[in-house]
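User: Could you walk me through two proteins back to back? I'd like the raw sequence and the structure tokens for each, with a short line separating them so I can tell where one ends and the next begins.

Assistant: Of course. Protein one, sequence then structure:
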Amino acid sequence: MNIAAYLSKGSNIQRVTNTFFNLPNGSIRSASFTSNAAKATTYGFEAELEALITDELRLTANLGHTHPKYDSFPDFNPNTGASIDRSGEPFSLIPKWTAGAALEYTKNFGFGDTSLRGDWSYTSDQYFSESTALQFSHEPSYSLLGARLSWKATDALNLAVFGRNLTDVSY
């Protein structure tokens, strides 16, 4: 079993933010800006487990938690020019939770090792943009299932068929 914890503090962080402008003719335009998010703190942990249940059956599992937080993120509203405080908004592309597990059975039938593996992974919800006001930038949490059947004749010859996202989850 491996466990790691971390704490990171940063300053002068720059972020690309997306916003929409209301034009005088009533149309809406989008634009991207690079903003100085000033200061942020990130902390979390990762844990991994690998267990040989029998000589032929192996279990692996992992769990991760990340908590990024803007300590200071002064910004402005491009439509009004008013100052806004975006401290506490979520970071983009960083899920708070990730997890996974796999079970693999390997057997030697006298002509090489044959393995059957099933795996599951989970990613909690996340944002694609620094702006939580953009509803389309939010991705809900999802889980994926996978499987693999392989035959290893030698170190140089390994044949496999596999499937990912077997439940056809859209993400």
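----
Protein two, same layout:
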Amino acid sequence: MGRPSQENDSEPETKASFTANSEHYSPGKTFRLELKLTHPAGLHSYYRNPGTVGLPLEASLKAPAGFEVQGPYWSIPHVGESVGEVYYGYSAPVFTWYVTPSSSASGDAVFEAAASWQLCGNEGGLPPSEPSHYSLTPSPGAGTEISPDPSTPRDSNINPSTEALPFAAQQ
């Protein structure tokens, strides 16, 4: 398998945003965190069941004590073909977590997301990335509650909400 060509032979850069739907949290009120990756044009990464080629994306969230986390939920992948093989992948994957603070949650809460991926194009793949890390720090206050669909199993694919998430981490 060859390497996708790059104009200046440097590694292509994936852009990332780590966002929350509220700057504040309140015990018992669920809020949402999303990690969105945007790969360079012409390149893609792979779903957790990638098909016949590629290494899957990996995403994790580290939450402080006192916060119950559901997820990650994966955005729905597209079906593609690369080097003659079928794959399930993304040009802009989104991972979603639903977080509910307990009554013991207090103070500024640091959430750390990590992700790694393999980028590929029609000419082949690049080596897998080193994990990238992102953090958010919502503070106690009047949080905005959202309602995750309780009928959606933890491991199912869901489309991320199109609702704007105003609280964003800096990469």
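The two ends are 31 Å apart (CA to CA).

Let me know if you want the two compared in more detail.
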